[in-house]
Amino acid sequence: MNEKSAVERAGVCLATGFLAAGESCGIKSSGKKDVAVIVSESPADAAAVFTRNKVVAAPIIVSKRHLQNRRARAVIISSGNANAATGEQGIRVAERMCDQVAASIGCSPKEVLIAQTGLIGIPLDEQLAVDAAAKVSGKVAVGGGMDAAEAIMTTDTRPKLAHASFEHEGITVTVSGMAKGAAMLSPSMATMIALIVSDASVDPAVLQGALDAAVQDSFHMMSVDGCTSTNDTVFFLANGASAAPRISSKGTAAYEQFAQAVRSVCISLAQQMAGDGEGSTKFLTMTVTGARSVSDARRAARAVTQSLLVKCSLAGENAYWGRVLSELGASGAEFNPANVEIRYGEHLVCSAGVACPHDENAVDEYMRGREIVITADLASGPHQATAWGCDLTHGYVDENMAKS
Amino acid sequence: MNEKSAVERAGVCLATGFLAAGESCGIKSSGKKDVAVIVSESPADAAAVFTRNKVVAAPIIVSKRHLQNRRARAVIISSGNANAATGEQGIRVAERMCDQVAASIGCSPKEVLIAQTGLIGIPLDEQLAVDAAAKVSGKVAVGGGMDAAEAIMTTDTRPKLAHASFEHEGITVTVSGMAKGAAMLSPSMATMIALIVSDASVDPAVLQGALDAAVQDSFHMMSVDGCTSTNDTVFFLANGASAAPRISSKGTAAYEQFAQAVRSVCISLAQQMAGDGEGSTKFLTMTVTGARSVSDARRAARAVTQSLLVKCSLAGENAYWGRVLSELGASGAEFNPANVEIRYGEHLVCSAGVACPHDENAVDEYMRGREIVITADLASGPHQATAWGCDLTHGYVDENMAKS
Question: Which of A273, A303, A329 lies at the terminal end of a domain, its last residue?
């Protein structure tokens, strides 16, 4: 096993002091792994970002309560049933799952966070869920990171992991994350489930700040279908097990290194989600430059990645820049269309807002690749932003036509 | 020929004093009809609504100039080339098309309005366009309404026409409209091309007010794919040829009748557009009741019609109400999820925000129909709104993957 695959197999356990497990517990009718538990050997500072959807799933209601003291020892994540639109019964099930994890590992239920993903509106069997929590909690180990990453997948075709590390006073600090994506993904909020862990020691308010900043540049800039889920959750636990000095405020060199590590992990996970959108065959990186403000740049880049027409063009390997220009114009960003340049890869196809001569064979060849980079220069200011998306294919339609 | 088909064949010429023609002029490579001209025998008061896209097509730039005096004699509409992102050349072509219509029928170029639809970013040949304007202007007749409706189609599978009439001091006043839709359709603006005409005599400010109000309840409440075009245009011409007294202010009984007729024509056209979305097999009517405000009701109803996941569920004939609830929650409307009721047709499937017992066979049977009505009661106030949409199928993807 080479070093890369060893790192990949470690998953979130690459950060010191984290144990994980993922098991099949009967929530998914397919029999695939469906429950993950991640435990910090010592109490960790905790931060989180949740969906902005008015309809929030039971696990979010429970996790918000448990997060009030900003400390956590464990996270349980189940897939196959969202436990959303399930009323008081759903809240009770989520609470009891946390209770069971707490009993198994020996901590307060308030130190256990929960996230769930899957179908909406279907009651989750209480005994099944509690038994699952007991079963998986009993199996956490340093080698369980990949099993945990697999257990949170729904229609994802592959697990999503990312890592970054830096030196802080001679000690290596690691930030490690895992996520699931696939659909109901939109930039209105971190529309997915992700768990980021670090062996850094970080003040919880600083931890939340670093997470919020990273989410803006990563999960908020990624779209598969523009749908905001009832269950979107990003948890971030930092347990200090690296023994590096505590990061207690922003503005220090250590904070900057830490924030950059968090950002790179979140961006990598967001890219992996966009690249594994349901039915997708293309991964789009859309960069807008020359914007009057960062918010204009973000708005414009996201608008292109969310456009059904642009997404269909990508599926058809068609460099139809007119649709890109139209979405920029509809985005609400301020610019003069007569100054816009649009490139597919290195190929300039639109200059001064109109078609310009280009090598059509070379562009056709470029569009046959899996990774498409579109760059639009609005020529209106110094700001830029990048968003990630995918194409729209029969596969997405088929996946979401199907009855569960 | 029965009365209905005679009415349908009349198209916009059902209103007194309007002539029309539609011809094949070589803009579409298919050889189908692609240019329509509609002429009022006497100068008409005119109103319009245009796209909010920052990138506006040449015909919109020209029509805005020509509309400054709020009078019009003719409208020319071409399909197959949007004449968008075509720079100064595009503006010159649109101006010359208006000049040619004016010369042919004997009016000022400022009295000619223009709309165009089709591919973005491709220069439109100037001589071809001017010749087309001359050819079609020479053929306008009372019997040309259906040809005109066909000539403005792009991927529409059928022409879209609507009519309404009322009595004003013993005289029948008619409002008649035609439209094209199919794709790049979203509620952010009347994202389509429509021409409404009436033989009423109406003050132009009142005409604009009646149009603005009708657009809010019709074209703004209709979505095929959430994409806002560069070319969206609704023109409204009223020529007074009915000889009914002039409508000079709001608040009169005649104005209310007129506004209602305009509204019903616009809603019918919007419904026809949603029901003929590219690749669509289902027509969705989404009504939200019990909202705290009209804007909340509109926002919530539109969110459901725009959801890719809801659209795929419709294609799969799957009454997955969890996705409807999630979109209501993500819409920004204020409500308590624990009080929501959702119905498919008459079938209550979600009560108090959770699943409720229902006859699954009857719901399955209902979902096999082409027209699906979903009603969500937010139980938060007295307001309601209805939006229209369609399903998302392979057909939409295929249509928009294709290279032109």
Answer: A273
pTM for the full predicted model: 0.83
Give the pair of three-digit tokens for residue B319.
């009454």
Mutate to test the interface with B, among A227, A229, A231, A314 (most CBs of B within 10 A): A227
Count of domains observed in chain B: 2
User: What amino acid occupies position A280?
Assistant: S
Which CATH number characterizes residue B329's domain? Answer: 3.10.20.340
Q: Do B176 and B243 have their domain in common?
A: yes
Q: Are strands B71-81 and B112-119 parallel, antiparallel or unpaired?
A: parallel
Beta carbons of A316 and B353 less than 8 Å apart: no
Residue B348 lies in a domain: yes
What CATH number has the domain bearing residue A16? 3.60.70.12
Is B328 in Cβ contact with A54 (below 8 Å)? yes
Report yes or no on A238 lying in a domain. Answer: yes
What is the CB-side half-sphere exposure of residue B274 using CA atoms within 13 A? 34
Any domain includes B278: no
Q: Which of B315, B321, B331 sits opposite A121 (nearest CB)?
A: B321
Better-scored residue on pLDDT, A134 or A5: A134
Q: Average pLDDT in the B210-237 region?
A: 79
Q: In what order do the strands lie in the sheet with B354-355?
A: B354-355, B347-351, B341-344, B371-377, B283-291, B383-390
The fraction of chain B above a pLDDT of 70, given in percent, is 94
In chain A, what residues touch B329 (CB-CB under 8 Å)? 53-56, 230
Residue type present at position A404: S
**What span, in angstroms and rounded, lies between the C-alpha atoms of A263 and A271?**
12
Residue numbers of A annotated as active site? 191
Residue A319 burial (10 A CB sphere; 0-12, 13-18, 19+): buried
A47 and A75: one domain? yes
pLDDT at A63: 94
Q: How near does any CA of chain A get to the CA of B8, in Å?
A: 32
Taking only the tens place, the pLDDT of each residue in B258-277 is 999 999 888 888 888 888 87
B289 is known as an active-site residue: no
Mean pLDDT, to the nearest integer, of A183-212? 75
Interface predicted TM-score (ipTM) of this complex, two decimals = 0.79
| Min Cα separation B47/chain A (Å) | 23
Phi, psi of B211 (to 5 degrees): -65, -45
Domain-located, residue B184: yes
B191, B230, B233, B375: the catalytic one is B191
Same domain (yes/no): A152, A178: yes
pLDDT tens-digit series, residues A13-24: 989 999 999 999
Chain B hits for A228, Cβ within 8 Å: 326, 330
Q: Do A17 and A125 have their domain in common?
A: yes
Do A312 and A192 have their domain in common?
no
SS3 label, residue A100: helix
List, for residues B156-171, the tens digit of each pLDDT value: 788 888 899 999 999 9
Closest in A322, A331, A396 to B121, CB measured: A322
Alpha-carbon distance of A345 to A243, in angstroms, equals 44
Residues A243 and A292 in one domain: no
Q: Which of A86, A331, A397 sits opposite B397 (nearest CB)?
A: A397
Same domain, A213 and A289: no
Domain that holds residue B340: 283-400
Residues B297 and B228 in one domain: no
pLDDT of residue B403: 65
* Span B344-377, pLDDT tens digits: 999 999 999 999 999 999 999 999 999 999 999 9
Of B273, B299, B317, the one marking the end of a domain is B273
Phi, psi of A167 (to 5 degrees): -100, 130
The whole-angstrom distance between A322's CA and the closest CA on chain B is 5
Secondary structure of residue A148 in the 3-state scheme:
helix
Asked if residue B341 has pLDDT above 50, the reply is yes
Q: Which residues in chain A are closer than 8 Å to B338, comparing Cβ atoms?
A: 87
pLDDT at A225: 63
